[in-house]
Amino acid sequence: MPIDAAKALAAEPRSGEIGWARRDVQLYHLGIGAGRPATDPDELRYTLETRLHVLPSFATVAGAGSPGVISGLSMPGIDVDLAKVLHGGQALTLHRPIPAEGTATATGRIAAVYDKGKAAVLVMRTDVADADGPLWTNDAQIFVRGEGGWGGDRGPSTRLDPPAGEPDRTVERPIREDQALLYRLSGDYNPLHADPDFAKRAGFDRPILHGLCTYGMTLKAVVDTLLDGDVSRVRSYTTRFAGVVYPGETLRIRMWRGDGDVRVAVSAVEREDAPVLADTIVEHS
Q: How far apart are the first and last CA of the chain?
């Protein structure tokens, strides 16, 4: 079997040094659509090095190494076809604000392997700490089509009841035709997001946008709209990737205020509000 759950779970964690500079943060912000309008003071917080603050979702690409989805596929006990892999979900916990430049140690391991019948789900956990202590923890849920059915643990259900009532805020965010090409410069070079032939082999008629790009665009919308532009207020951010997004489309982002959190639902405007992100929660101070 391409996935040996016992071997994957027993494997020693992998640790490595990562580093990032202000340029990396700026490039990431541009990759998720920041800088429009270019001279807007609120946008300059994401693009101008002298005012720079770091959107917490930068944690998914910090160090310009392989994101959790790709690094998880190189762990012991995992041998699967990249064309069968989808990013199922992402959970980020912030232990403190991310500095605009720094070095840290990232430690990754397979935290769980679930048998969903027709697919397997791997949870790749990455803990990152610098000299001052823990910075963040990332959990990437990796969905591998055709690799389930061995009788393993199905795992917990991540489905939530839909938010009640009308959203408190709704915003729309256009996606550039070249958004995936720009975003991939932050480290995720999966050809699914750039190569039309590979995308067709994976079952799509054209390259799709990175799920983590949509993830970053959505968090930025929440921070800018409901958290007064203050990135330091974000405590955690969890989502399930419910559908694909194509470059050139428009995201409709609906937000419901809670007590210390924001529930979010994201859909594709041009495809009759087809779901994109679901079960999405931003916890904040």
A: 45
Is 188 among the catalytic positions?
yes
Whether pTM exceeds 0.90: yes
Mean pLDDT by 10 residues, the chain (285 residues): 86 93 97 97 97 97 71 83 85 97 95 93 94 96 90 85 93 97 93 95 94 97 98 98 97 97 98 98 98
| Residue 264, token pair as written in the block | 């979010």
Take residue 89 and report the two structure tokens written for it.
């979900």
Cα–Cα dist 35/89, whole Å: 27
Strand pairing report for 102-115 and 14-20: antiparallel
CA dihedral (113, 120, 77, 187) in degrees, to 10, reads -90
> Which residue type sits at 34?
A
Which of 224-254 are b and which e, b meaning 16 or more Cβ less than 10 Å from the residue's Cβ? Answer: bbbbebebbbbbbbbbbbbbbbbbebebbbb
Q: Which residues, at least 6 apart from 91, have a Cβ–Cβ distance to it below 8 Å?
A: 138, 139, 141, 236, 237, 238, 239
Question: In whole angstroms, what is the distance from residue 66 CA to residue 56 CA?
Answer: 17
**pLDDT (tens digit per residue) in 122-147:** 999 999 999 999 999 999 999 998 98
The catalytic position among 188, 224, 279, 284 is 188
| Predicted local distance difference test score (pLDDT) of residue 67 | 54
Q: Active-site residue among 29, 87, 193, 210?
A: 193
193 in active site: yes
